[in-house]
Design brief:
mainly alpha; 11 helices
Length: about 240
């Protein structure tokens, strides 16, 4: 379901069509929780997961509602707006993952909140070169204005210091969320750790963007990390996030 919702924005040319698809999933979730799932493969599997793990309906609705708002195709006004979007999508997905792992713990939820925000911020950064080629920029406007950077600067692929300062500030916020999530890791049940292995990819991207001095358009950032599977294995073996 997450992939379906994520792809809606990129696969439509009219907002009305996107709204119709979002409404389909909103009604599908309602029917799933009434034990009347629609005859659609993803909805059927989702119904089975809900029954098996007693998943919370609110998280599904938050994801759908936030993705619907995001159809407006405009930049985030500030970093807080980006974090709100990440909380209601990425963090909500982590809350559901925790429920599937049988973890219902306040410390695990707190960690999921910060990791989800970090993931949302990093996703926004990673997508910037792609969006720029489509004449779109979604980076927080308050940080861009702080450094005197316009959307046109990103669309033209500029790499001046003030452009890199924007990326530094945004990436730093993601790093802060990751560090905060780890600050109370000893209170988080070990059973929850598999849900947080996404931090490996986040660390990898933040490390790589730091190596290229926060040049968001550097070619190396678009390459797959061959060592990522190894880092995932090590983090899993050490039982850390």
């Amino acid at each position: 379901m997450w992939n379906w919702l994520r792809q809606i924005k990129d696969s439509i040319t009219q907002k009305t069509i996107g709204l119709m698809r979002m409404q389909f999933w909103r009604e599908a979730v309602e029917h799933i929780y009434c034990d009347k799932p629609p005859h659609q493969p993803v909805a059927t599997e989702l119904w089975r997961a809900v029954k098996r793990h007693n998943l919370t309906k609110m998280w599904f609705m938050k994801i759908i509602d936030e993705r619907e708002k995001n159809l407006d195709d405009r930049a985030y006004r500030n970093i807080q707006e980006l974090e709100t979007y990440a909380e209601n999508t990425q963090s909500a997905l982590l809350y559901l993952t925790l429920e599937m792992l049988g973890v219902r713990d306040i410390h695990a939820d707190h960690a999921a909140s910060h990791i989800g925000k970090a993931q949302g911020i990093v996703t926004c950064l990673r997508a910037t070169p792609y969006h720029s080629t489509r004449q779109k920029v979604f980076l927080p406007m308050d940080i861009c204005m702080l450094h005197g950077v316009s959307q046109e600067d990103f669309i033209r692929g500029k790499q001046e210091k003030n452009v890199r300062d924007v990326i530094y500030d945004i990436a730093s916020q993601a790093h802060i969320h990751l560090e905060h999530a780890r600050s109370f890791s000893k209170k988080v049940p070990v059973k929850a750790y598999p849900a947080f292995l996404c931090t490996v990819a986040l660390d990898d991207y933040l490390c790589n963007i730091r190596k290229v001095d926060f040049n968001i358009f550097h070619p190396s950032l678009q390459k797959k990390s061959t060592l990522l599977p190894l880092h995932l294995y090590i983090r899993s073996w050490k039982k850390t996030y």
